[in-house]
Structures are given as structure tokens and as C-alpha cells.
Amino acid sequence: MARTNRLIKIPIALVLLALVAFLFVRSARDSRANPFTVERAQLTGWTLEIEAASGPSSPLLVLQAPPDFSNGLFRQLFSRAMESLSMPVPAAIPLLLEGEFDRAFAGRMTPEALLDVARSAGLGAGALQPRCMVYRRVSSPERTRQIYFALFDLPAFAAFRAQIGDRLAAGGSAGAAYDPAALSPAMVVAASDTEFNAWLPIKADPDKDCLAPIVAN
Fold it and tell me: Prior bond to 90 cis, omega within 30?
């Protein structure tokens, strides 16, 4: 009888453990799906910068966020996920990557000239409109990597990338070296390691990829 009781208790314990694990995962997922909040004042004062790029996937031109904007989102993420995460400092929206510049623009336009086009397209002026937080996870036998990034409704971003593509075409350059749609207006908020540029270029579909909305107070 005692052995029978033990045999009954083992599957019951396993079911209970599975239920607890399921409820924990669902609670974490639901928590992450709640809206993130930012202060409205943090949506202005973003600055255009030329970065010292270190590789093909490194940003060359960026729209840099005020520190309070990225810090606030990172704190909210950490309180929900309760995971060991790293934050890029400074945080920024990549506008053009080093590899894109080397393939298509080097010898035709300088970074400074490209920055002028970004400015004329409206980047760095007015308030930004964040749309949502996106989460991605990539697993391999060696490790599992995770990233959270903020996605924006930013028409000036698309206008800038289209305009520099038009300049290439007007100059007779091959368009295959540059795809205006290859990059989305996204800013890395946190990742499971510090290899932030390894995720670039980021291409996201807000209708499919959004984890949670970002709303301004």
C-alpha cells in the first residue's frame, strides 16, 4: 500500500510542478505585455550623431535618445523580466549602418552630407512617437540570446532612407547595394549580452512583432 501511495504521489507532484512552471511563464509574459510608459518631455531633444563605427553592422548615423528615456524603459523591463540584462549607453535609433555606407555611399557622400539629409528630412526636430516594445529570442546549442527594442512611428526615418537612395540613383549608382527598407526605426533597450550590434540590421513589422505598447504620460 505504501509503495502504491508513493507511485501515485510522484505523477501528482510532477503535474503540480508543471502547473507552477506554466503559471510562472504566463505571469511573466502577461507582465511584459502591459503597456510601457515614458514621459512626454523625453520624446523631444533627441540628437543626430555620427558614430565611430567598428564593423559592418555598427551604426554610423544615429538619432540619440535622452538618457532618461532609455533608462526609464530599461528599469520597467528589469522589474518585469527580473533577468540579467545589459543596456546600451548611449541608446539610439540607428539611421545608417557602416556596412551600408561602405557598400553604397563611400566616395559618393560623406557622413556629414548624409547627416544634413537626415536633418532636412526632419530627424532631430519635433517629438518622436514610440509605438511598442518588441522582444526577440534566438537559441542555439551554445547559448540563448534575447533582445528588447522600442519600435517607433517615425515617418522622417523612412523619408531620410528613401532620399539618400534617390540620391544614389540620381548619381547613377547601383541600387542593389542599398535597401531603404532594410532597417526599421528601432532602438535597442536591453539585451542578454553586450553584443548589441550583432542584432543589426533590425527589421520589424509592428502588426506582428509588438509585445506591448509604449505610451506617453
Answer: yes
pLDDT tens string 145-160: 999 999 999 999 999 9
Q: Which pTM value belongs to this model?
A: 0.84
Q: Which domain holds residue 5?
A: 1-33
Q: Return the bridge partners of 48, or none.
A: 63
Which pLDDT score, from 0 to 100, does residue 20 have? 36
Q: Compute how many other C-beta atoms are within 10 angstroms of the C-beta atom of residue 36.
A: 21
Say if residue 51 is in the same domain as residue 104.
yes
Give yes or no: residues 59 and 3 share one domain.
no
What's the rounded Cα separation, in Å, for the pair 97 and 177?
Answer: 12
Q: Please check whether residue 204 is in contact with residue 150, taking contact to mean a CB–CB distance below 8 angstroms.
A: no
Q: Element (H or E) spanning 40, and its range?
A: none
Residue 80 contacts residue 31 (beta carbons within 8 Å): yes
For residues 39 and 74, state if they share a domain.
yes
User: 3-state DSSP call for residue 86?
Assistant: strand
% of the chain exceeding 90 in pLDDT: 76
Backbone phi, then psi, for 92, in 5-degree steps? Answer: -160, 160
Same domain (yes/no): 46, 24: no
| Residue 140, burial from CB neighbour count under 10 angstroms (0-12, 13-18, 19+) | exposed
